Amino acid sequence: MNKLKTVIKNLGPGLLFASMAIGTSHLVLSTKAGAQYGWLMVIPIVIANILKYPFFEFGIRYTNVTGKSIIEGYRNRGKGYLWLYAFITLATSIATPAALCSITAGLFITIFGIQGVSITTVALGLFVFNSIILIIGKYKLLEAMLKFVVPILFVALLATTVLVINKGAITPVTGFEAPKFFDEMGVLFLITLIGWMPTAVEGSSWLSLWTVEKYKISKKKPSLNEALQEFNSGYLMTAILAIFFLIIGSTTLFGSGVELSGNAVTFSDQVIQIFTTHIGSWAYVFIAVAAFATMYSTCLTNHDAIARVSIDVISKIAGDKKESVSRKYYSISVIILSVMSIVVLYVLAANMSLILGVATGVSFVLAPVVGYMNLKNVMSNEIPKADRPNLNLQILTYVGIFFLSLLAVYYGWMVVF
């Protein structure tokens, strides 16, 4: 009971991480994994969450012990680390917010039955709304909103999963053959799923900056164990919900012969209609709200994170060590990110698959590099030996780096040849 009270008191970075992660990788990729390949895909989902755990945990560990963001740790390791992370941030920030907002806009259009309005127009409205929330409320309002949204989302998805299981799996259509798991399409999907599960590895710096902001606002820093307990609760939630979405996709779609669309609006409509057809029309509002809350919370936290990280990277490259730089230019960063994302949506015609493919591809290939950079931070002289990761966590980190490196090389070979 005391541990639970401590976790609730320290809620913040782990909660935002869960909100940010429970989005595209869950609603889209986990659902598709179950729909196309069935229960078998639970294996890569679990493996991805285990192997990537240290990469994210190090973001909390470094900041809690040093009081600095992990981006400052990159600079302390050498300018090369910082410039490499700047490139990663630029590459992913071009595609990720646009992808998330296009899916969220698609859900909005589907739920409210909007006619004659383009997905880009709705996305523009979402970006404006998000910018207002973040500029006015900043971290404090964001955390307060998510303390309300995320628990409701968890309960809603748990209830949906139970209803789906109780209803039972659909009867496969005549002549249905399960797709091959290790053909070219299967491997590419597997790489996309692992690359984005539970989220992009560079999200460790987002987690670190949220932690810095949390400590500033509360004016109190929890112990390392307390900080890790709060993060672990959020991380465990993301893994469980990924399996929930897999179960829903597998039970309602595997063997149906239905091919999920790459278009944001069509995909959203398909998912909601299929779920309600399987469970009952009475569940439409329940499912629609859960799906929209999933994507909107991710869309909002991602916007805040990339805006926050971008300005922090720029200030560190410029050599400014004052935290006031981040505060002063945060609003400008939020607005610039909105404008840039809208341009991406116009250029790519709101093609969710293309935008998502770019983002996940970059994240996947560079994941082992970021993992290694994070390991170097927490094993540096800035961290007392007693607070460094234990041997088992170090071994798990190297296993994760090795495994993801092999997949990244194979992915590169498939793309080139």
UniProtKB/TrEMBL annotation:
UniProt entry keywords in alphabetical sequence? Membrane, Transmembrane, Transmembrane helix
What does the UniProt entry say about where the protein is found? Answer: Membrane
- Alphabetized GO MF terms: metal ion transmembrane transporter activity
Q: Name one GO cellular component term.
A: membrane
Residue ranges annotated as transmembrane are 40-60, 81-111, 117-136, 148-165, 185-212, 233-254, 274-296, 329-348, 354-375, 395-413
InterPro entries, A to Z: NRAMP_fam (IPR001046)
Report the membrane topology from the UniProt record: Multi-pass membrane protein
This chain belongs to the protein called Mn2+/Fe2+ NRAMP family transporter
- Write the lineage as a comma-separated list: Bacteria, Pseudomonadati, Bacteroidota, Flavobacteriia, Flavobacteriales
